[in-house]
């Protein structure tokens, strides 16, 4: 025991047998181990090698048993269930005398006088945390980065996305897995990725121990194919099966990619069996995912299927108002209303339009107005032009105010006629791509300054006079609805 006394720098745990000098591995066995250890890189992949296998050290050899040390109990258990059998095989391929490998825990860090139960627990706790961190790091290499702006508190909720939002919140607020999988679908640019990142951010904050993996289906496929080529399919499988929450974005991408689907299907089932949360997004409902195997499609619809509908005017306006606050920019309400009306395709484009006018006003050092907005966004607006005509606007305004359409062109200046005419000019400016002189011509050959005055006047009145604001709103809806 005197020999051991000098080695108290090593904390010895579990069932490690303290070997005498005669059990020291022979040079041949040591060389064999070095070779097998190196081969593990190729066999299991770099990430797994670094997280798990690198610290494996040959300690002793006796009667066909290779004794290999690992630094923590947690790692021993993990390696035992996941890699030990294969490592044993690899050794046997080199030398048939080798019957088995035995994993023992040797912590070489802190010297301890006495190995009390309590200290043991603390250490293994620390070790577990560290191993978990290793696992997290390995996963982080595969996971796609999260956009820091995509959070729950920056997500504006409206009727069209309320269900998907509520479901996403349930996932982070619930102690158990509320539904598996959560399947979110909707058109491009409507907030699917935003919601998924919001879930990931929240989980990371509230349960840092959880291993959350987020990636696009495209990246999943890429990783899978790469793993196959590099002979790392095993490690690929294990990494995906060791996560607590798996999120795959844009699953429609693997349509027609059969082996990727097959792999995903098995991963999916393995995680569901372990009661791990899965979240999937797609651009369409599970039943419409053509090119995806029927088995997988029906699995995808097992849990909660939540759709995101196209946006409404109110939601678009709400998002723009939120963005305006975030950007701390001075933007008149009329501009936001204009954008909410005109850019209806999706939220990404809506944000893009707002960013463009803000950037332009910064560079040009100009305040943002309706006119400048129309200028800057000319190309975009042309493609989104809903082809509302000035004639149509005049008809609707006349109808609303119980006037004749001819009153829109006439020279009558009574307020009961002039005000509606101004509203019609304002809406013409807002809803069509016509220039001020063009609008003027359509209103009985009026000058462009008259139109400009009308636009400003109505803008002012909308702020001051609830009746006018409502009139404008009603007519606008009638035209764009
Ligand atoms: P998808 O993944 O559905 O194609 P994204 O999640 O990438 O769409 O959303 C596109 C853009 O719109 C992102 O910048 C996102 O932050 C924004 N966005 C989408 N929905 C909302 C919402 N409800 N509130 C605020 N921003 C949103
Ligand atoms: Mg997306």
Give an overview in words.
With about 475 residues, the protein is an alpha/beta fold. It has 4 domains: about 5-105, GMP Synthetase, Chain A, domain 3 (2-Layer Sandwich), CATH 3.30.300; about 150-310, P-loop containing nucleotide triphosphate hydrolases (Rossmann fold, 3-Layer(aba) Sandwich), CATH 3.40.50; about 315-365; about 390-480, DnaA protein, C-terminal DNA-binding domain (Chromosomal Replication Initiator Protein Dnaa, Chain: A), CATH 1.10.1750.10. About 55% of the residues lie in helices and about 10% in strands. The protein has 22 helices and 9 strands. The protein has helices spanning about 1-5, 25-45, 45-55, 75-80, 85-95, 115-140, 160-175, 190-205, 215-230, 235-240, 260-275, 295-300, 315-325, 335-340, 345-365, 370-375, 380-385, 390-400, 415-430, 435-440, 450-465, 465-480; strands at about 10, 55-60, 65-70, 100-105, 180-185, 210-215, 245-250, 275-280, 305-310. The strands form 2 sheets. It has a 5-stranded parallel β-sheet, with helices on both faces. Helix 11 links the parallel strand 7 and strand 8 (about 275-280). Helix 9 runs antiparallel to helix 10 and helix 13 crosses helix 14. The structure holds adenosine-5'-diphosphate and magnesium ion. Magnesium ion binds near residues 192, 193, 249 and 250.
Short note summarizing the structure:
By secondary structure, the protein is an alpha/beta fold.
């Amino acid at each position: 025991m005197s020999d051991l006394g000098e080695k108290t720098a090593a904390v010895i745990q579990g069932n490690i047998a303290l070997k005498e000098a005669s059990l020291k591995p022979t040079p041949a066995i040591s060389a064999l181990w070095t070779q097998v250890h190196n081969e593990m890189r190729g066999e299991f992949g770099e990430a797994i090698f670094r997280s798990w296998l690198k610290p494996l050290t040959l300690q002793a050899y006796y009667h066909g048993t290779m004794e290999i040390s690992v630094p923590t109990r947690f790692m021993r258990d993990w390696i035992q269930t996941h890699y030990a059998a294969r490592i044993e095989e690899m050794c046997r391929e080199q030398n048939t005398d080798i019957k088995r490998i035995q994993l023992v825990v040797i912590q070489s860090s802190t010297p301890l006088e006495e190995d009390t139960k309590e200290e043991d627990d603390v250490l293994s706790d620390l070790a577990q945390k560290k191993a978990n961190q290793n696992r997290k790091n390995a996963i982080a290499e595969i996971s796609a980065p999260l956009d820091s702006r995509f959070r729950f508190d920056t997500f504006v909720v409206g009727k069209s996305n309320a269900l998907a939002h509520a479901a996403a919140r349930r996932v982070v607020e619930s102690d158990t897995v509320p539904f598996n999988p959560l399947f979110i679908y909707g058109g491009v640019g409507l907030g699917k990725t935003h919601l998924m990142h919001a879930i990931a951010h929240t989980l990371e904050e509230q349960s840092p121990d959880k291993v959350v993996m987020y990636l696009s289906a495209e990246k999943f496929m890429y990783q899978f194919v790469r793993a196959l080529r590099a002979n790392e399919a095993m490690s690929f499988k294990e990494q995906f099966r060791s996560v607590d929450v798996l999120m795959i974005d844009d699953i429609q991408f693997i349509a027609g990619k059969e082996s990727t689907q097959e792999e995903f299907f098995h991963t999916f089932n393995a995680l569901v069996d372990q009661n791990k949360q899965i979240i999937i997004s797609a651009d369409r409902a599970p039943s419409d995912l053509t090119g995806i195997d029927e088995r997988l499609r029906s699995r995808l619809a097992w849990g909660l299927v939540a759709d995101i509908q196209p946006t409404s005017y109110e939601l678009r306006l709400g998002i723009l108002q939120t963005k305006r606050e975030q950007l701390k920019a001075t933007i008149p309400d009329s501009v936001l209303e204009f954008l909410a009306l005109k850019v209806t395709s999706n939220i990404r484009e809506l944000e893009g339009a707002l960013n463009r006018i803000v950037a332009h006003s910064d560079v040009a050092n100009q305040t943002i107005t309706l006119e400048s907005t129309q200028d800057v966004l000319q190309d975009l607006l042309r493609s989104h032009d809903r082809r509302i005509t000035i004639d149509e606007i005049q008809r609707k305004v006349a109808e609303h105010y119980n006037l004749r359409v001819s009153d829109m062109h006439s020279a009558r200046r009574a307020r009961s006629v002039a005000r509606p005419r101004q509203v019609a000019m304002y809406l013409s400016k807002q809803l069509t791509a016509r220039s001020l002189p063009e609008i003027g011509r359509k209103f009985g050959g009026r000058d462009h300054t008259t139109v400009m005055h009308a636009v400003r006047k109505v803008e002012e009145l909308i702020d001051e006079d609830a009746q006018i604001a409502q009139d404008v709103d009603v007519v606008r809806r009638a035209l764009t609805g």
